Each structure stands twice: as structure tokens, then as C-alpha cells.
Automatic annotation (TrEMBL):
The lineage of its organism: Bacteria, Pseudomonadati, Lentisphaerota, Lentisphaeria, Victivallales. It is found in: Membrane. This is Type II/III secretion system secretin-like domain-containing protein. Belongs to the bacterial secretin family. InterPro entries: Bact_Secretion_Sys_Channel (IPR050810), T2SS/T3SS_dom (IPR004846). Its main location: membrane. It comes from Victivallis lenta. PANTHER family: PROBABLE GENERAL SECRETION PATHWAY PROTEIN D, SECRETIN GSPD-RELATED. It holds the Pfam family Secretin. Residues 1-22 form the signal peptide.
């Protein structure tokens, strides 16, 4: 053997250095050496095992754990051949690992029983199938949470849901299946919901006093005959008839039925008090961005006058102006809230992004807050954070023509509210005292006599506005209020025990 070939054989491990030294001398014949290079790869082999005492589902996890540690390409498959009542196991692993698999299966698959009456000599984690009917939550939402946490990360596991029946079904080993039932009980809890009750209180007091003589109405009315009455008074022929007419005419019966227009005399006082309480209630779930709205727009009748002073019955509303003509205005100068074809509702409520945080002692084992209906509003309370918009439009005055004066208020804000009590969210008040005098210049400034040459209008108003909110936790299993044929106050719909 020549030196290059011998060196190559030694490096490949085919010859030992001592063997090379003991080799016979070259005789001139030619030898051929073939080298097979396999990069130390494993040669795989497959085998089918027929189990006599165990189930393939129970043995597979043990065998799979052994062969996977030796080579990640190893596989273990289980076959449940019911027609032949056979339990088969197929194993693919490296050749040098197969004897160990034979020994493992021989030691596992033997006629033995576990103390306590078990059916198998080992209690494996065999693959099981199970289902769970969702009670409070959507099956899709819970499946998304389960898959996101790696529940179905194994090769033999699967989890899915049926949208029509709201069922969750899965396939996994027995231990994980039991854990899955525990996790689902934690996830399948009632969606946090609260009932938000808003009450808007409005109190308005007004006093209107109109006293004096309207100079414009007097001048265009009886004042036109003043000059003619002066000439008749200086005539001797008509003095007697004028005096008789004055004694028996319209002036003589002025306080009974005047025969001329006496509307220039302004003697009017109007006092009024309006007390309004609007209540709106919404039941909302926990949400980060959703908006919930409620509106109340009843219709009531009102008597008003047209331009021809004829009485007519119509629908009361903020947009009704009675016999007063609508003023003309340019584009963009109209108030869409008051001048729209339909009046706004007396009460409109919008709640946005309600976030409900429970406040109670958590369970020591699970760390969860009790979610039974009996605990709500008693041992379990909640802190509710939300954004609200309240708009009210109420009629507070009507004049002689039936035109309505409305109070329109809009309040927005954010609130943190603890369930179980009523809180004041907003309050404002307004007081006005207006005095206006219209008459003849200089003469209207004379004390006492000024009322003969002018009209004084005094308008005093006081308005008070309060908004309160009350929250109550709502459970899906709570019995609803009985509305059948009964009219109940709002205070009767809330449990009295929750107010303590």
C-alpha cells in the first residue's frame, strides 16, 4: 500500500497505525479501497407494536418523549383499530435507539393493575375530546384567548368553536383537558354591566311686570282725536252736546266696556314657577369606545293663537312660536337646535366608553372576584368611568299667543362613579333682573308722573340646574322588573337594599 493511501486510511479510521507497520511488503498487486462518507447521519427505522394490555393513547406520550430526545425527526403514531380490537403503536427512530424502545414498551405493556382499581397499569395523558357550552361570553372570544396563550400548540391538540350553538370543542391530552375546563370557567364570566340613571332637575322662577302708558299705541289710537275734541270744547253750540256725550258715552262706562281701543294702557303682571325633573336610564356593558344613546320625545297638546287671534290646538314643542312670525335671517344665522322643522327631544343622553372595574375581595385560590348575582351591589361594587352628554329642552313659559319659551341645556363631561349611590355631576344657576322703560323723552323721567308718559317693564328670572347620576351593577341572571300592566316609579325598580 503506497503512503498516500495508507495515510488516508488511517485518517478515516479504517486502519490503525500498528496495522500499517505490520503490513506485508508490496508485491506489486493493486488494491482498491472505497470510502463511504455519511456525515454521521442517523439511519431511521420503523416498527409496529401491538399492545396487549395498554391503550396506545397512554403509551404514546412516554415513547414520544424518549425518541424525541434522541432525534427530533423521530415520530410516534397511535392506531386504535376497533374492528380488530387492537391497540397499535408505530415508532420511527434511529436504528441504535430501537432496542431501547423495545425494552421500554415491553416493561410498560404488562399485566399489572394500579392500587385503587385502575383499568391500566399506568395512568398516562392520553388524548381526549371534550366540549364546553359557553354561558356568558362568546365562544369565539374565548377561543381567541386560548389559542393566543398556546393552548393548541401541540401537534396532537386542536381547539375550535361552533358559532351557531356557541360551543367550544377541543382535542388534547387528559391533563391539559382538565386544565382547559378550569381556564374556561375563569374566562366564561358575566360581561360587566351597569345601569346608569341620570336625573336632570330644573327650577325656574320668573316675574314679569308691565306698568304705564304705551305712548305709540296712544298716539295712533285715541290720540288722533285729541285735536278734534279740543275744537269741539271751544264751540258754544256743541258744548252741551259734548258734555252730555262725555257723561253718557264711552268715557262714562270706561271701566265697564270702553267703546274705543284702550290697549295703550299697560297694566300687566305675570308670575310663574317651573319645576322640571327628567330621568334617563341606560344599561351598558364594559367597552373602550362604544357609544350608547337614549332619547325621550313625547307629544302633548297646547292652545295657541294664530295671527288672526283665532284659538287653535296644536302639538306642544320647542319649535312652536304661536302667532309670532318667524324673523327672516341670512344663511348661516339659524340655530339648528331651535329652528329645525322638528323640535329637539326634551331629553337626550349619550354615554361613551364605559369602563367598569370591580371592587371586592378576591378569592384566595383563583384570584377572581365573585360573580354571582347575590353578591352584586352588596359585597361586590364597581368603579365606573364614562363620558356623558346630556341635552334637555323644556318649555317653561307661554305668552298670551301661545308662543313657548324653552330652556335648552347641553352638558358634557367625564366621570368616575362608585356604584350604589347617587352623585351630583353638575350644577349651575342664573339670576337676572332687567328693568326697561319706553316713553317720551324727559317726561318719562319725572317721578310718579313718568308712568303717564312711558311704560316700565320689569323682568326677574331665577334658574337652577342640577344633574345627578346613579349606578347599579347588573347581572344577567337578575330578575327583570315586572312591567306587565303596572306603572312603577324609578325608585321601585332599584333594590332598596342596594341603597344602604
Amino acid at each position: 500500500m503506497n503512503q498516500p493511501i495508507a495515510a488516508l486510511a488511517v485518517s478515516a479510521g479504517l486502519l490503525l497505525p500498528g496495522a500499517l507497520a505490520a503490513a506485508p511488503p508490496e508485491t506489486g498487486e493493486t488494491r482498491t479501497i472505497r470510502l463511504i462518507q455519511d456525515d454521521a447521519q442517523e439511519y431511521m427505522i420503523s416498527k409496529v407494536y401491538e399492545l396487549k394490555y395498554l391503550k396506545a393513547n397512554d403509551v404514546a406520550p412516554f415513547v414520544l418523549g424518549v425518541v424525541k430526545r434522541n432525534n427530533t425527526q423521530s415520530t410516534v403514531n397511535r392506531i386504535n383499530y376497533r374492528a380488530g380490537d387492537e391497540q397499535l403503536l408505530t415508532v420511527s427512530c434511529p436504528v441504535r435507539m430501537m432496542p431501547y424502545v423495545d425494552d421500554l414498551i415491553a416493561k410498560l405493556d404488562r399485566p399489572a393493575r394500579v392500587a385503587g382499581g385502575g383499568e391500566d397499569p399506568i395512568r398516562g395523558t392520553g388524548i381526549t375530546r371534550n366540549l364546553y357550552p359557553a354561558r356568558f361570553r362568546s365562544a369565539r372570544v374565548m377561543v381567541d384567548v386560548m389559542t393566543g396563550t398556546g393552548i393548541n400548540g401541540g401537534a396532537d391538540s386542536f381547539v375550535g368553536y361552533d358559532a351557531e350553538t356557541n360551543l367550544i370543542y377541543w382535542k388534547d391530552d387528559a391533563n391539559k383537558s382538565n386544565d382547559l375546563l378550569k381556564y374556561l370557567a375563569w374566562l366564561d364570566r358575566p360581561v360587566p354591566m351597569v345601569n346608569l340613571a341620570f336625573t336632570v332637575y330644573e327650577v325656574r322662577e320668573s316675574t314679569l311686570r308691565d306698568l304705564g302708558i304705551d305712548y305709540l299705541a296712544w298716539r295712533n289710537g285715541p290720540g288722533l282725536n285729541l285735536l278734534q275734541a279740543g275744537f269741539n270744547a271751544m264751540s258754544l253750540d256743541s258744548a252741551g252736546s259734548a258734555a252730555l256725550s262725555a257723561a253718557s258715552g264711552g268715557f262714562g262706562a270706561f271701566f265697564i266696556a270702553p267703546q274705543f281701543d284702550a290697549s295703550f294702557i299697560r297694566v300687566l303682571q305675570q308670575n310663574g314657577k317651573a319645576t322640571i325633573a327628567n330621568t334617563a336610564s341606560l344599561t351598558v356593558p364594559n367597552s373602550e369606545s362604544a357609544s350608547y344613546s337614549v332619547g325621550f320625545s313625547p307629544q302633548s297638546q297646547a292652545i295657541f293663537k294664530r295671527n288672526n287671534d283665532q284659538l287653535q290646538v296644536g302639538i306642544s314643542g320647542v319649535g312652536m312660536k304661536g302667532g309670532i312670525e318667524q324673523p327672516e335671517s341670512g344663511p348661516g344665522a339659524e340655530n339648528p337646535l331651535l329652528n329645525s322643522p322638528e323640535p329637539p327631544p326634551p331629553l337626550a343622553l349619550t354615554v361613551t366608553a364605559p369602563r367598569i372595574n370591580f371592587r371586592s375581595s378576591a378569592d384566595a385560590k383563583t384570584g377572581l372576584i365573585p360573580d354571582q348575582a347575590a353578591n352584586y351591589n352588596h359585597s361586590v361594587q364597581a368603579l365606573v368611568t364614562f363620558r356623558y352628554l346630556i341635552r334637555t329642552a323644556d318649555v317653561v313659559e307661554r305668552n298670551s299667543y301661545g308662543a313657548e319659551l324653552a330652556e335648552v341645556s347641553t352638558v358634557t363631561g367625564d366621570c368616575n362613579l362608585l356604584s350604589g349611590g347617587e352623585k351630583l355631576l353638575s350644577a349651575w344657576s342664573k339670576e337676572s333682573d332687567v328693568e326697561q322703560r319706553i316713553g317720551i323723552p324727559f317726561l318719562s323721567d319725572i317721578p310718579v308722573l313718568g308712568s303717564l308718559f312711558s311704560t316700565t317693564t320689569v323682568n326677574r328670572e331665577k334658574s337652577y340646574f342640577f344633574i345627578t347620576a346613579k349606578t347599579m351593577l347588573v347581572h344577567p341572571e337578575s330578575a327583570p322588573a315586572e312591567y306587565s300592566g303596572q306603572l312603577k316609579a324609578f325608585s321601585e325598580l332599584i333594590p332598596q337594599t342596594a341603597e344602604r
